[in-house]
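ok trying this again, last paste got cut off
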Amino acid sequence: MKTTKINKVLIALDYDETSHKVAEQGFTLAQAMNAEVILLHVISEQPLYYSGYSYMRELQVDFTGNLVESTQKFLDKTKKHLGNESIKTSIKAGEIAETILKTAKELNVDIIVMGTLSRKWLENIIMGSQASDVLKKTTIPLYIIPTKKQTK
């Protein structure tokens, strides 16, 4: 059986407070494989930036200003948190699942890492699950990090 070497790991992040967990898990995977890491954030054409992303308040995103600049600061903060300056970052705009898959193919990545959280049922109906959409359409291996908060 032939084993495929993982050389590039694409970690897709959103502004959720659990994104650091996703980044950490993806980075750990990449380190174990001695692989290059690329952090990706997709700026959605849909209005997905809503007050439920409490983590965004830390970023002080100015919606009337430059969302790309705020997003780059977020990715740079994540990169610093991981403690590795060789990590690359990428910001794309478009439909989230399609853009993640397109970017993964363009960058010739070997695995996509992303988180999934359990939203309220109405949000799932309106917005769907991005991880589910990527899973349905991908030909690239996908590592999904569950980010649902534990209830005691």
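PB: full thing came through this time. The longest helix spans residues 67-82.
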